[in-house]
Amino acid sequence: MYKNYFYFFNLIFSCILFCYGSNNENKKKCTMGYEPLRDDDKKDFDKCININYSFTSTWVSSFLVCSSTGGKIITFENKEDFLLVNKIIKKNNKFNIQPSTFYDNISKLGIWYGAGQTCPGMYNNETPILRYINGSYLYYKDMEKSLIDMNIYKDLQDNSIKNKDNVCLVLYLSGTGPKSELNKPYFVLERCTKEKITICIKDADDFNKLNEETPLYSSKNDNYNSDYNEIFTMSKKYPCGLNIFWCPIKIKDQGTKCYGVVRQPTDWDHSRDICSTYLNGDLASFHSNLEENHVQEIIKEAEQVYNFMTTGFWIGLNRKNSEKSLEWSDDSPLNYLGRFASFNTIKEENEHSDGNCFVIKKIFNSTKYGWHRMRCDSQNSFICEKPGYGFNTSIYQINSKKFEHSFDNKGCNNGEKYYNGMCYTLLGTDSRDKKNFYEADEDCKSRDMTLVSIIDEYEQNMILSMLHSFQEDVWIGMSVTKGTLRWIDQESVKYTKFSPINRIYRSSGGSFYFTNENSFGFHDNGCVSLDGSNHEGFWNVIPLKHLNISFLSKLNKNIEIKTRKDCSNTKLGYICERYATKDYDSKTENENAEQPLCHTMKDEDISFCYLKNNKKLKTKIQFKEANYLCNEMLDLETYQKLNNDGKKIGYLPVPENSFEWAYLTIHSDMNNYESFWIGIQYSYEKGFIRSDGGRIKMGIWGPDEPNLHKGSCVIVKLENEGPRWYMTSCYEEHETICKIGYKKKKHQEIKVKCPVGKENWILGKTKCYYIEEDSYKRFSSTDNNHKCYLHYNATLASFPTKEDFQIFTEYAHQNKHVSDRLYIGLMRLKYGKFSWIDGSPTNFFNWDKNEPSKPESWKLSHTLDTRCTVLLLSKGYAWASDFCKRDYNYICSVDVVDINEIESIPDDNENDNQSTTSPDKNESSENDKKESIKDEKESKKGNKNDSNYIRSIIISFFILLTLTSIVGGALYFIKIRQDKLKHIQTLQTVNYSILEEES
């Protein structure tokens, strides 16, 4: 018996040794789906191949399929490898169940080879330039030598091949394809959009090195493969690196810029994360017609090569800042305006009317492309960009000629305002002195000045502070010429603040025009004004010429609309500027030289006292000390003149509006402040509160703010990009500015309610809330916001105040069936800053311990996905950052409305369904009497109508009964007839079951 066991184990050991060999041998293995590249099963092999027998695809699709399995489209390092592939194909064809189908496909269609044109303009004279999949170039004159001395032909049946663009190499076996008379394999240049067979190739895995880390795209032969790290290495020969995704373009005086298309549909924020994390770039920005045309050519090829249609391609243009002004995501200047366009349908236009991001897509009924505004949570493909080799990034950081002059030359004339070596004057404040754009420009020149240019946020605040008493629109010195922005004084355009009220209209002739609330359209040319009345501080674009725009109505009638405003007929005030010099009539408001203790906004009767200039006081102090100093400062003799009537008080400043904020910050800059306290403090019981008891109306937060881990008090830092709010410890020491004004009167609290149709929502202080628990409506967080919009005309929930949050948590606590995790509308934006998705002020937070989790660059998924926020009901409704692709419920919210607001009267049926409606309790007694008399009269009429009503019911019943009897009788007669026919058929048919029983 033991001998039998011995023989059995010996047999198993021999089989293992025979199959796998000894440990000393260099064993190879192919991953799933691949087979060894060899003609004999007993031979060693170094490479594996995968032949896709079932499907054909375009060249790019083949590239993506092979890449997804760790391989690449087949390329040959030597002729022997090709002969092996040829044998394997014929061998598989012999044993295939349907051999003719597969071999016919190869014979007719051919096999994609790993070299092709991936970008527009890849040709030299009349010959195309191809790239291997590792990024190296293959020039036409060197093709035969590089391709193992195999012949190369052009596709003579395709006349468009002469265009030289979008061609790839196709491999045909001997005796197949258009040159079937040849007895050896050959190549043909064909369109990359055709459908061909895909064969993937990759290095075999080594058993001895399975546990070692191996770089991607590594191989023995450096001619066709590159180490993964080299993909991002740029050089003069490879200005965008070796990644064939990028398409380079040379820009005069700047260098090479790289663009590429990503077909993966996603939202705007995620697409930008992908460009940054995976491709070391950003979403595309355009600064010339040359760049935009290059990207359009890439898009055209992508639409053909990928063989897919998309709603558009995301670009970096957006209005996701708190001011809703246009900007590029890569922080480059907005110095070029492309072709803005409207949507094909009114439905699309309405859906994206509040969109803050932009796509480039084909214009309806046109071959041209335009920029379309869309909701940022829409799903689109996108365009990435990055600077290429030797790109001059400093081209966008040109230093302004302003403020270069010595500060000794700081004299201004009477009526002019001084700021950092420049003098400004506001003209046209009287209606008789207002001028159009051209007249204003000429008047400034006659004064040896120019219409003002604005180079940064500080100068913007300077201009806005001059308008606090005027509060009307004024001309500034910007013009738009053929879509390009220019300052009249030739300053470089690196700061813009266009108004969110700009809209786009399309005429019946297919032209597209800018417009705003006050005028209809311009496309290429216009002038710019600064809004001082409605959207304070924002810029409006006004058409250059008076236009008649023709629209086609639903009744096929042409409607002529004349633009109400253009640069010639619009009369506004205007601001001129010049350099401050020593030649002046009388030096006035020279604050930098005089350094007065306080500046007063006379029309507002508010003063800001810059205590740093008072050498008798210590003003760099802690928050509590600064608050006390401001409260007591009017008792000091120096400041008593600001309180002549004895009714004013002093407190730490908090801006009430944009004019006040501009005035405060511009004078703090002129008085050499770097940072100062403002009267806002965070309380875990009440959220953000003001020291003067007012309501917080602004929140100009810096990056990664508000961050409660830093402290609970707020300072303003005057940074290069502009003044920003930052959280800090209340025990740190910062400079002090005090605000002097009258004590605020407590306003009577307005009673509010939820809007019509949302009466059953949770009523908060400023918002109404609804918890969506329908499992069929669970999507990623950005999609949840879109669903809130589609189903309820709402957004993901925000909690602007502590009271809103407390009311909601009380409801959620009472309804214990609510899920433990709920998505809310707090999102991590640029630089780690959190913001409410509906733009509400971020005055309150309730983060859990160690939250929000800080993104780490090496954790890719964390960086991309944990930008969303959830409520943790099991942890006392604490907030936590979480992945956006989780199956959680979510909360929607809308603004509350005044309880006295007049709303549309619902139908009778709606009144029956609304449980929250109730009669008006404030009706007068006289109205009650009139109603009661009216009811008595109606009741008398009702008694007569009741008898008529009963009689009509009885008659209707008898009529219905008669009709039912007639229909029933007819159906019964038909059924009887059918039964007789069936019986006759049964008698004529042999009943086999009966015969079987009898036998």
UniProtKB/TrEMBL annotation:
Keywords per UniProt: Disulfide bond, Membrane, Signal, Transmembrane, Transmembrane helix
Region span, Disordered: 903-943
Species assigned in the record: Strongyloides stercoralis (Threadworm)
Domain C-type lectin per the UniProt entry, residue ranges: 254-385, 419-540, 609-739, 764-893
Span of the signal peptide: 1-21
Compositionally biased tracts (Basic and acidic residues): 920-943
Protein name (Swiss-Prot/TrEMBL): ATP-dependent RNA helicase
Protein origin, superkingdom: Eukaryota
Gene3D superfamilies according to UniProt: Mannose-Binding Protein A, subunit A
Pfam families: Lectin_C
